[in-house]
Fold this sequence. Notes:
By secondary structure, this protein is an alpha/beta fold. It has 2 domains: 3-175, Rossmann fold (3-Layer(aba) Sandwich); 194-344, 3-Layer(aba) Sandwich (Rossmann fold). Helices cover 47% and strands 17% of the residues. The protein has helices spanning 3-9, 13-28, 33-40, 88-104, 125-139, 158-172, 193-211, 228-240, 262-272, 286-290, 329-338, 346-349, 352-366, 372-397, 401-420; strands at 44-53, 59-68, 76-83, 110-117, 148-152, 220-224, 243-249, 252-255, 282-284, 296-299, 318-320, 342-344. Bound molecules: 1,4-dihydronicotinamide adenine dinucleotide (NAI) and 2-oxoglutaric acid. The site of 1,4-dihydronicotinamide adenine dinucleotide has 25 residues, from helix 8 and strand 7. NAD(+) binds at residues 197, 228.
Amino acid sequence: xxxxxxxxxxxxxxxxxxxxxxxxxxxxxxxxxxxxxxxxxxxxxxxxxxxxxxxxxxxxxxxxxxxxxxxxxxxxxxxxxxxxxxxxxxxxxxxxxxxxxxxxxxxxxxxxxxxxxxxxxxxxxxxxxxxxxxxxxxxxxxxxxxxxxxxxxxxxxxxxxxxxxxxxxxxxxxxxxxxxxxxxxxxxxxxxxxxxxxxxxxxxxxxxxxxxxxxxxxxxxxxxxxxxxxxxxxxxxxxxxxxxxxxxxxxxxxxxxxxxxxxxxxxxxxxxxxxxxxxxxxxxxxxxxxxxxxxxxxxxxxxxxxxxxxxxxxxxxxxxxxxxxxxxxxxxxxxxxxxxxxxxxxxxxxxxxxxxxxxxxxxxxxxxxxxxxxxxxxxxxxxxxxxxxxxxxxxxxxxxxxxxxxxxxxxxxxxxxxxxxxxx
Length: 424
Ligand SMILES: NC(=O)C1=CN([C@@H]2O[C@H](COP(=O)(O)OP(=O)(O)OC[C@H]3O[C@@H](n4cnc5c(N)ncnc54)[C@H](O)[C@@H]3O)[C@@H](O)[C@H]2O)C=CC1
Ligand SMILES: O=C(O)CCC(=O)C(=O)O
């Protein structure tokens, strides 16, 4: 990777954060110097201009990225984010985390991520469709079912994946559902993919509650972010009997110490678009939500929300990282020193999404589809196994849980690179 590109990536605090995590993990496992840079830095960074016609007839040009961090362990895998603050450095950090995540849970994938600098709420449906199709059109030569397989992330969803799949299929001349995952069921999506990330977050969090001797019925949860991951996590917590006391989105939070009815909140957001003014709850800020007394805190929105400023003020027993990168390096240190919070690191905690994406990809390649029970059973088995391996590494090497998870993920990628020789 060129030094110019790397220095651009380092403009991003999120990229710096992912690199610090890598350096710490590489030191902890004495990763040989000659493997470090090629394991750490992305293999390919692609930036494209995306011109689209607006509804008023004018043309707008958006900037799009795809970063393929690691291609040594399989086709690269990872979502595409539409957000006004996306940078190529952020996308590279998210791609790096995808590499460690896929490797940790044992998927035959490398890591990638994509992004477009756009606030999707400011586009009409037609503009959004044209932008999504243009993104795929520009990326056609860099993606493929055995090269790089995108999925949804912040600001994208099943509908966007369907448009992208359609554009790719038109290009190759036949339907190719395995080009993206997270599609609607009607075009080859998997049962369970929509719920998978949030369901996995709640599943793992309840396993850690069990370890602490806490029952779901005696526990409470505060969830930041009410999109795909946050809403599905909140629903799953509610199903386990955990009382959901706070929710939030980009407009702020809502709080009820007696419990919020999550199903009603989902219906409210479907009609109102935002959580603001949800009945039977009082308004709070996103910052207040993070500091509420609760058994589980689940940040499920954006990066770097738990910082040096609030880490000592958290009042949860379990910190379940539904989002990627919600905890800064200094906050991590503070949480470690406190020792009273079980932190479930992102690469483990939110891995349910990519696990079911893997199932979707396999089903597409085989053209043979599984029922929901089979999907969920296989998902929980993989999460249990990954959790056990993290706990074993944590105990054996006296690492924090994040360091245990990252070292497992990084070691497997580095081993594959070493095994393939010097120039894979
Ligand atoms: N969708 C997926 O399958 C997976 C997503 N993730 C991660 O989970 C997180 C959320 O992703 P999705 O739920 O897919 O996105 P989404 O776009 O469906 O939802 C994002 C939610 O966060 C809220 N939000 C945005 N800015 C916020 C802010 N400043 N403060 C509080 N809330 C804010 C939005 O209002 C929305 O409710 C991201 O970190 C993503 O990378 C991780 C694994 C898989
Ligand atoms: O489902 C996938 O392929 C990727 C999901 C994702 O972007 C993530 O785990 O952060």
